[in-house]
Structures are given as structure tokens and as C-alpha cells.
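Input record (one chain):
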Amino acid sequence: MLGRTDSRRRLLAILVALVVLALSLCGRLAWWQLVRGSDLAAAANRQTTITIDTPSRRGTIYDRSGTVVLAASVDRYRLIAAPNTLSLEDRQRTAQNLIGLLGLSGQDAVDLTGRMVSERGYVVLTHGVDEAHAQVIRNGLANGDLAGLSLEPEPLRVYPLSGAGPDTTLAAQLLGFVNRDGVGQYGVEQRYQDVLAGQPRVEVAQRDANNDPVPDTISVESPGVPGSDIRLTLDAGFELELEQELMAADTADKAKGVSAVVMDPYTGEIYGEASYPSYDANEYATIATTNPSRFIDPVVSSVYEPGSVFKMLTALAGFENGTVDPDTKVHDTGSLSLDHGTARIYDANKKGMGWLKFEDIVAYSRNVGAARVALGLASSTKKASSILESTWERLGFGAPTGIDVAGEVSGLVRDPTVSPWRQVDLANGAFGQGVAVTPIQLATAYSAMVNGGVLVTPHVVLAVGQNDVQPTPRARVMTPDMSVQMTELMSHVIHTVPWYRDNTLVPGYVMGGKTGTAQIWDPTANHGRGGWKSTYNYSFIGYIGKGHPQVVVAITIHEATPLFIAQGDLPLPVESYELFRRVATDAMTTLDLPTSSSTADVANP
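The corresponding structure, as predicted from the sequence alone:
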């Protein structure tokens, strides 16, 4: 007889296990329903809820008059399709009809057909459909020629004014553009993105099987805030004239580019700012694929070695430290041996002019004379280097000016307290080599030299909405008397040197300025050993006005090709000082300039 296989102990163990399992399941169920229930419900709701962001209308950008539109938003549509709701035959028919209605050809027609015959439930066929084509599409839907399509509103940023050059819009590099997502890129559009864009209207709704919102479930989370209009400091008429001058000079000089900025030295308002070549901001997508470097504004975002325009900084350091004055005699020997004979600098023509007054050293742009003054700033190279570099720093070099556009760079200034300068470094710095700056930094520094000694903040926005913008105050960087000396020294330069006097002065106006020429080092030349290019950067920074300086003009001709290269002679078809005269004349005859500003009007911050 077989023994019994059941066992009271075994049955009890099974019962206990089942009870524990049941309690665990109940506990887990309670955990999900009671503790995590609200989280799970919220997660489920999120999976079936969509958020609809509708951008607010973007603010308009005007010139300083408040009447000329530089950038605006217009109503356009994006064309949407739901191909999976149609038969293949209807998709193909709709695609062919659309190609005809929209006038597409080539790759554009192929791309639209590919999207339309797909199995997708939602596809964007094209952007930027204007009202005329939108009405044609509506008619096609009504008469059955088209199917499975819908039009969604889509604001489009437009730049209505043509620039001076072909395929350009006015002030493109300063303004920037707005991408398809409604986000400003570069320039004013990026810097003032939040102000111009406002806040979008936000709606939430449950979605159906096609991912479309269920109308009865739509609720408004935020009504949105329209973008604010902006009024710039630019004068549109003068900006066009400026671009025309730059294009002509660029073509004549066979330059890589030409830039200019024209500003009020007392307020920092930018009346005109441009570079050539430029681009058409309405075609930014094409530019992005072919030549995106055009988006960079050289006035604020590109650095270069300024050359002899920096001799004004050397003069300032010498005047302030009492080591020279305008009448101090300086020996110009054509070349100068430095660092115990291991280095040598030269004047451009390598010929000395003998003993000259310091004001003539600056006027005739003698490198050796400027170097002797820099070396004589103190009893040691270390102390003299610190004095010169601190003068640069005080005038704003090595730091952003604070101009209200995106992408400003700081420039490159080597601190002698961190990396000690040799004699040759100090000498090169005296005439603007071994340092990299932006044109806007130069315009700002020269403004301080002529406005009574105050470093202003350059800016391009006058007002946001109805509220005037107050520029950020900066510091006094020299005494009013020193500013007068610097202004007079700039005047001496262009009244003394015959070729400046004949090609720069405009009768009836006070004027002054300084040129700079710098050869360009190419570190990739000679199989990576480096070498000098056969092109040069040319600059002129100066002022013009009726009775007193009213505008400062900074001209930069980038990588221009001289007519010929001779010892100390690198002529251009359009010299930097000639371009300055043209731009300065345009400014005085076009702009409605304030007449009350003078060095006495600049408040001591």
C-alpha cells in the first residue's frame, strides 16, 4: 500500500505562500493606485495632450526717424499634408497639381512629390506661401483638384530695403535675420530677441488619433504678449550712401572687404555701420549653405592688427606721463636695434627723417620715432610696457565696448605683467603691431579723444516701444585738456602732410585723424613656417564737424592689393583717407546732426 503524499505542513506552507503573494499583489496595486495614481494619471494625460505655441507678431525695426521700416513680419502660410488619408492615386494627382499651381520645377518639384506620396500622417510641404498662392490652394481644395491639404499661418520676417550691392539688403550684417523657428540670429535680431519676439500664445488640448487637437478640449494657458517695435540710431538714407561708398572702394581696391562705422562721439549713437561684401537677409537659408561667413559683422566681430592708428595711443601715454609734448624733438633714424642687437624695427621706407617734432613723428607716421617715445615712457622696459598697455586698456582695448548687437569680441591684448614684453614687443606696440582690435573699439577710443575724455558706450537702439534706451555710462579716461591736445594732434596730422591735406580736408569743416597700414602675417605660408602676405590692412580713424567734432568715422580696408609695392609706398586706387573724406562729407550733408554738442557738454560720469 502506497503512503499518503499529502501533508498538513505542506498545505500550510502553500497557503501561507499564497496569502503572502496575494498581500504583495494587493500592496503593489495599492501603491500604484493610491500612492502613484496621480502621477500615472498625469503621465497618461501628457501622452494624450498637446501644447500649441503660436508665436506673437514680432516687433518691427525702424530707422532713427521711426518711419522707415528696416525689418518687419508679414503673414505667410506653411502648406501641410496628411498623405496617409489619401489613396496613392490621389496623392500623386495632388502633387502634380500643386507643382503646377506653385510653379515648381527641378529638385523642388521632386522634393514636394516625395513628401506628398509618403505614408506619413503629417508633413510640411512648403513654407512661406503668400496670400495669392494660398487662395489658389483653397480654390483647388474646393473644386477637388487638391486633397488632404491644409494651410497654417506662419509669420515671415522680411527686410524690405535693398542694400547698395547686388543681392543685399540694407544693414544686413548689423540687423541679422530671423530663422524659420522665429529666433533672431546675429546682430540686432539676436541681441533683442526677447524684446522683438514677445511671448507666444500657449494652448493645450487633447489630441485625436491623427495627432490633431480636439476642438472642444482646447484651453488657453497664456494669451501671449506681442513683440515690441525697435527704433534704431541708424539713418536709412545715410546707411545706403555709406554702403555705396564701401562697395565702390572695395571694387577699386580689390580688397577682401571694406568696413566703416560712423558714430556720435558724445552719445555713442551709431549713425551708420556697414561692411562690403554683405548679403540678402531675405535669403539667409541660401547664404547659410553657400557662404555663412557673410553673417559675421567685421565691425564688431572681427579683429585685425591696426597699425599706425595706434600711434595716437602712444602719444596719449607720452603726454600724460610728461615724457614728451608736441614740440619735443625725436630722432628718426630709419631703423632701430633692440634687445641687444637681436631685433630691429624699421620705418616704412627704411629712411630716417632726422630730428622731428613729436607731432610730426605722428603726422608722418614714423615707426622709429613712436618706438623711441614708447621706450622712453619709463626707466625700464617692464615699467614702460605696463604704462602703454594700461593706456590701451583704459581706452577700452582688450574688452567689449558693450555695443548692443550680438557677437561682439574683445580683441587681443597681451598683458606684460603676465607675459613680459621685450623691447621689440614694446616698440611694435607703439605703432599698432602685436595687438588685435575691432573697428568699433577704435571708433570708441577716438571718440574719447575728441569728446572731452569720456569713454562712451556705442549703441544702435534708440528706443524700445515708446521707451528711450539709456546707454550704460562708462568712465572718464582722460582730462578735458588732454582731449583737446589729442584733437589738435589729429588736426595737425591731416593739415601737415601734403597728401593728407590734399585728399582729406573738406572746406568749411574742422577735421582730424590718423592713418594706419599693416602687412598681414599668414601662419600657414611656407609649409607652416609663416610668412607675410602681399596684401595689407588700411585704416583711417578721424573726426569732422562744424566748429567742433560732430562725428567720428572709422574706416578699415581689409586685405587690399596695392597698385604697386615700393619702399614705404603702398598706394591704393581709393586710399583710406580718401574714403574717410567721402563718408565724412556724406555724413555732414545727409545727417541731421545736433549742433549743441561740444567737448564742454560731456558730463563727468
